[in-house]
UniProtKB/TrEMBL annotation:
Key words of the record: Coiled coil
Protein name: Septum formation initiator family protein
Source domain of life: Bacteria
Keyword Coiled coil: yes
InterPro entries from the UniProt entry: FtsL/DivIC
Species: Paracoccus caeni
Coiled coil: 44-71
Length: 97
């Protein structure tokens, strides 16, 4: 004789499987799931690279600012910046298009 599950046991089994599948899907695809975590880690790595690039740019600009300050004036840098801004060249310079 084979034993058959009662209707309530069958409904319980179906609900248990459905909940298990739902939670498995949520663990992979949900807002806190594995795929979202991978995406966040990737974005975090890209933002860290951008942060490092910007830090380098800020350091460069701070160096240029210091070199043009009253305490430490780099005459060559001042001359270069003035000619670039004013669009002027010295008589002994050749400008290439």
């Amino acid at each position: 004789m084979s034993q058959r599950l009662s209707i309530s046991a069958t409904i319980f089994l179906v609900l248990t499987v459905a909940l298990g599948l739902y939670f498995a899907f949520a663990a992979v695809q949900g807002p806190s799931g594995i795929l979202r975590r991978i995406q966040i880690e990737s974005e975090s790595a890209e933002l860290a690279i951008e942060r490092d690039r910007l830090k380098t740019e800020v350091d460069r600009m701070q160096n240029l600012t210091r070199r043009l300050s009253d305490e430490y004036l780099d005459i060559d840098l001042l001359d270069e910046r003035a000619r670039e801004v004013l669009g002027m060249a010295r008589a002994d310079e050749i400008i290439l298009p």
